[in-house]
Amino acid sequence: MAISEFDLIDRFFARAADRSAPGVVAGIGDDCAVLQLEPGERLATSIDTQVQGRHFMFDTPPVHIGYRAVAAAVSDLAAMGAQPRGMTLALTLPKADESWLQGFSEGLHEASRNFGCPLIGGDLTRGPLTITIAVFGALPPDRMLARSGAQPGDQLWVSGSLGDAAAALRVLAGEWPGPAEEAQYLLRRFYSPSPRLALGQQLLEHGATAAIDVSDGLLADVGHIAHASGVRIVVDSKSLPLSDVLFKFPDIKQALTWALTGGDDYELCFCLPAGAIAPTGCARIGKVVRGSGVECDFAIEESRGFRHF
Ligand code: ADP
Ligand code: MG
Prior knowledge:
Layout: H1 5-13, H2 16-19, E1 24-26, E2 34-35, E3 42-51, H3 62-80, E4 83-93, H4 98-114, E5 119-126, E6 130-139, E7 155-159, H5 164-172, H6 180-191, H7 197-205, E8 210-213, H8 218-229, E9 232-235, H9 244-248, H10 252-261, E10 268-272, E11 282-289, E12 293-296
Parallel strand pairs: 4-5, 9-12
Antiparallel strand pairs: 1-2, 3-6, 4-6, 7-10, 7-11, 8-10, 9-11
């Protein structure tokens, strides 16, 4: 007999630990999920869809699809300075493929545990493979990291290193020229991004004036800050933080292009007033001036970032 929708939810998605996570009043199994916020807290929410053939390929292992979908969604909470409280999953499947669901749900639950974001509800339908995750997070009553507060005189910072996820596409294409450890490192960066949750919350205290997560490519994402803030941002290509693997890559122009235009790194890019020092692990990569748009001393032909339309 065919397995029912409810059996699938019970087997692959409902977890006791999620139902009893802090702040979860009602989780999977009721008509709505209910979250308890502390008095005065604000709710931050964001939703992301991933479509097979567009955001991931037909041969991507399901465990990676699950992990990455959660990491990408949670990264938006990090970019606002919010603390994850829960997520819902709308899953459209061509068929009830139990081995695919096993891998996908493992990746999803692992990311959910790593980022402290319990799965509290969802939906399951039949159709072309599509994964939609909505995340819910808490912000203090008086602060958030918007894109819109950058001021001329601020300095531009970024966490971690840039370009690794873009370089991983070379690995996936079977074209990585370096040793296997490098390829492994790049694939980890691509499949298991680390949304910068702790940094986002710290930046609320550091007086960051604007922030965004690097999902479309640094120049494109910095452009969003410039546009929302009504300022011009100057990026210094010589200060871009590169991993050891990209730093050693023989074609430095290619490495810089990955760092400036490659998406999917999920680092945080943010502005601080001049003289303010960012938390450790961040690099100063530019400055905010009067005007509009983004300026970079390294010329790239196509720097719009990924666009669907
Ligand atoms: P309703 O008909 O009231 O919308 P459903 O029958 O669709 O409820 O779902 C039953 C319960 O299972 C709900 O709590 C819903 O949030 C949850 N749920 C459904 N699909 C998923 C999923 N893919 N992942 C997690 N929870 C799910
Ligand atoms: Mg209902």
